[in-house]
Write a structure and sequence with these properties.
It is a single chain. By secondary structure, the chain is α+β, with helices and mostly antiparallel strands. It has one domain: GTP Cyclohydrolase I, domain 2, CATH 3.30.1130. The protein has 3 helices and 6 strands, in the order ββββααββα.
């Protein structure tokens, strides 16, 4: 059954022809919609292969690939707002590890997911590739938090 207008309240960016692209960190652009299947335990993965930010020291651009996977509770992130949010890092100066943790924390605050993980696969700078991973789970998903963290520790590289 299609979503009703009431269920789509709060979704203002999708379908808008007047989208503004902020190139400064802008978490307030994030929007959510209702999860119609909160009784199901399922995984949503969002893949952003064109993430950019700036080195906080040199101001040089950093390019990476951000992968977000989460088990929703009541609210889910709307993908266009996520695109605009990730784009807002374009002129944001932070280390790769910081960007991944900021993204995860902003999405936890936004959606209160049962579980979420954010992986960053950044292009090499100075011959070193940085692959930060951050995750969070509610009380019922602490085993998954540890399992996924251990799997990432043991993988060596992705």
């Amino acid at each position: 059954m299609p979503r009703t207008e009431k269920e789509l309240e709060g979704i203002s960016l999708l379908g808008s022809r007047q989208t503004k692209y902020s190139d400064n960190y802008c978490p307030e652009v994030l929007e959510t919609f209702e999860n119609k299947h909160p009784d199901n335990e399922y995984l949503v993965t969002l893949d952003c292969p064109e993430f950019t930010s700036l080195c906080p020291k040199t101001g040089q651009p950093d390019f990476g690939h951000i992968i977000i996977s989460y088990i929703p509770r009541q609210r889910m992130v709307e993908s266009k707002s996520l695109k605009l949010y990730l784009f807002s890092f374009r002129n944001h100066g932070d280390f790769h590890e910081d960007c991944v943790n900021i993204i995860m924390k902003d999405l936890v605050e936004l959606m209160d997911p049962k579980y979420i993980e954010v992986s960053g696969l950044f292009n090499p700078r100075g011959g070193i590739r940085i692959l930060p991973f951050a995750n969070y789970g509610d009380q019922d998903h602490q085993a998954l938090v540890q399992e996924r963290l251990t799997a990432n520790l043991n993988s060596g590289s992705r």
